[in-house]
Amino acid sequence: MSDLRTARDRALRLYDATAARTSAGVLAAYSTSFGLGTRLLGRRAQEDIRAVYALVRLADEVVDTYRGDDAGAELDELEEQTARALRTGYSTNLVVHAFARTARRVGITAAETVPFFASMRSDLTVREHDRASYEAYVYGSAEVVGLMCVRAFLNEDRRPGEPVREPDQAQVTGARALGAAFQKINFLRDLGADTEELGRTYFPGTTPGHLDDAQLSAILREITDDVEAARAAVPSLPRRARYAVGATLALYQRLLDEIASRPPEDLLVGRVRLPTPVKLLVVGESVLAEARAGRAADA
């Protein structure tokens, strides 16, 4: 009997590892910037963040890439798989399985996943947002993802049987601001594609295919406030997470600076990108700055 149990345990570990590699592959395929930041995390936190990213990407692909007549049904099925896996810890969908393992270990619950899927579902029908729907969308699509990530950071070395470590209010505020900043920068970066391919705009008061200087200035101020709030919470994170979040913030700040240097009409016709050498330089500078700050604090 013990031999059978041992064989089953080995098989489950193999399945878990395969699910983790699947999530890592999704991140590697879809995001250079986010991927660079995660490499600065410890092994366990890397795996957890990749699992979160992969599920988010899977849902995003349904509403932004597939967009079939049954996209709503596909999204419903993915949400049902996720809810079931949160209860059982298992899924035949490898991405969902990896996410559920992470979620159950770090304390991610339906409080995060339900608003996330609600925001994803709105992408199937909503083309323009007012302030209320925009804030609800950003919360569900991005701020809760920040909350998932901060839970992964805080519980990286949590052992079985130990209570889940809950983020404090400053960390919650910072995590939500981080998710919001990244999402809004992505909105600006993808403005042309969202307009041309999806007929969609996210920022309140704007319409697809139109953005003027005053609107862009207001959006940039809003994002800057989010970035500053996120940056203020970085010192409260575990050491490896400080390096990773700091580097990713630096990358998005550089992208935001590049976006801010363009006239609005440029954003409507092309996607702003950072060359890989620039990304590597930004990450390197951020790591050195964090290392110097750490040495100064220890002195």
From TrEMBL:
Record's keyword annotation contains Mitochondrion: no
InterPro entries in the record: Isoprenoid_synthase_dom_sf (IPR008949), Squ/phyt_synthse (IPR002060), Squalene/phytoene_synthase_CS (IPR019845), Trans_IPPS_bact-type (IPR044843)
Highest taxon of the lineage: Bacteria
Record-linked Pfam families: SQS_PSY
Keywords: Transferase
Pathway: Carotenoid biosynthesis; phytoene biosynthesis
SUPFAM superfamilies noted in UniProt: Terpenoid synthases (SSF48576)
Protein name per the record: Phytoene/squalene synthetase
